[in-house]
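Bug: token stream looks shifted between consecutive jobs. Job 1:
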Amino acid sequence: MTRSSQNTGGWPTVLWIGWRAGEVEHQEPLCLAHRAHVFEHFPASAYGLKRRGERCSMCVAHPPQAAESRGRGTRGSGRRVSPTRHDPSYRSRPG
């Protein structure tokens, strides 16, 4: 059985949502996570537009960092951290 957040191809279902934030009216295609965010923060003005989209506009605008998706972290300074070498012969190699 397919979850409601995904279509049969395994890709997230993107739906168009409209809402008002202050004086600005928004109408954008959003994934399930971003739709939940909009409905949580703007419950009085959020509404569905009954059409599908290709991509979530918020995911496209703020993609996850590539380093995090590869499993690498960052140090407190924001620099990337390389994986630790565990090869014992690495240190004994001539220079």
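Job 2, same session, no restart:
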Amino acid sequence: MDYVSFKRWHLNGEIKSEWSGGKTDSVEHDIDGNIILKNSDYKNGNFRKRDIAYRTELYNYEGEITVLSNKH
């Protein structure tokens, strides 16, 4: 199955996340509707996730590594 686009909502009716089909067309919103992630990076420009040849790094909003997963 190929998706064309998708949207998810918070319980209060605000859009939680949306994707319009392109590789870099993703947006995530907080519960108040503010954009917190755009195109897999945080709104402030910090990385959210980096895939490197031998590991994957996940970052918090402040740019600190929160998860480091080594690939074997």
